[in-house]
Amino acid sequence: AIPFASFLYGITIGKYNYKVIRQTLFFPDLPDAFDGTTITHISDVHSGSFDDAEKIQYAIDLINEQNSDMVLFTGDIVNTHATEMDPWIDTFKGIHNPKFGKFSVLGNHDYGDYGAWNSREEKAQNIPTLKNYQAEAGFKLLRNENIALEKYGEKIYLLGVENWGIKPFPQYGDLDKALKGVPEDAIKVLMSHDPTHFDEVVKKHKTNVHLTLSGHTHGMQFG
């Protein structure tokens, strides 16, 4: 009875039980200009599961209350189809545009592998549509690429890779490609949806990545 009751709670009330978890990070080689920089990290929205606009707006308000210097979203904005996000574009556009911007990467669900499609062409259009929707909401999608964030002439680098997970999850992420043009000694913040990418690739890589942000392991609504 206890697991069954937990399941019912999770898929009804628990899925909207949003929390802000604060972490303070120290890096001895962080440029002075970036001391005190704040990041709001969100992940695994799965917008196709939304059924309460008021609760979603509460989540947006909670994000905005943090007033961070950047907002980073680490994938799974839909369950399968890009169209799931369509009704929520304006809602996510409501996330304030911070100093350094809003950035995102793809998660395993975003590739459309878990649903039925009428044709290969229709499935192939899913990610371009998703990219457009995210752009409308103010997010820049990073696909195995990086962007320099500059303040007072000093820089840190934000890296974003496609999904890389232990099979059967897709392994499209390419850290080497995302690092192209990034100075070896630069501070690097990596967005990678699946945390197994850190265990299997990132921490073994010759280049030091200072911070990796991931999602994925929420265990449906149980987590």
Rough outline: globular
Q: Percentage of helical residues?
A: 10-25%
Distance between the termini: 18 Å
Assembly level: single chain
Strand order of the biggest β-sheet: 1-2-3-4
Strand share of the residues?
A: 15-25%
Q: Average pLDDT, to the nearest integer?
A: 94
What is the succession of H and E elements? HEHEHEHHEEEHEHE
Structural class: alpha/beta
What this model shows, in words?
This protein has 223 residues and is of the alpha/beta class. 25% of the residues lie in helices and 16% in strands. It is built from 7 helices and 8 strands. It is globular, with a radius of gyration of 18 Å.
What are the salient characteristics of this protein?
223 residues; 4-stranded mixed β-sheet; globular; alpha/beta; 4-stranded parallel β-sheet
